[in-house]
Amino acid sequence: MxxxxxxxxxxxxxxxxxxxTEGLAPVIVETLxxxxxxxxxxxxxxxxxxxxxxxxxxxxxxxxVMEHGxxxxxxxxxxxxxxxxxxxxxxxx
Length: 93
Description:
Elements: H1 2-9, E1 14-18, H2 26-41, E2 45-49, H3 53-56, E3 62-67, E4 70-76, H4 84-91
Parallel strand pairs: 1-2
Antiparallel strand pairs: 3-4
């Protein structure tokens, strides 16, 4: 959270985040999600690389599924429900 605050103080309009939920307590993950929603509502562009699909899904406008370093699927937020079985296959759910 401190790193995010430092970046936002610079006036940046894009935030790049990589696995921000890894190793964090669930209450902290929930708080991070709330902060990201507020930043998105303010018009900040957020690029999030995250394996925790349940955290990332409600935040994202677009999802890219990667396998062996290649993008194998691009899914818009409104397509998530229709492509759930395909996502389960990729994500091993």
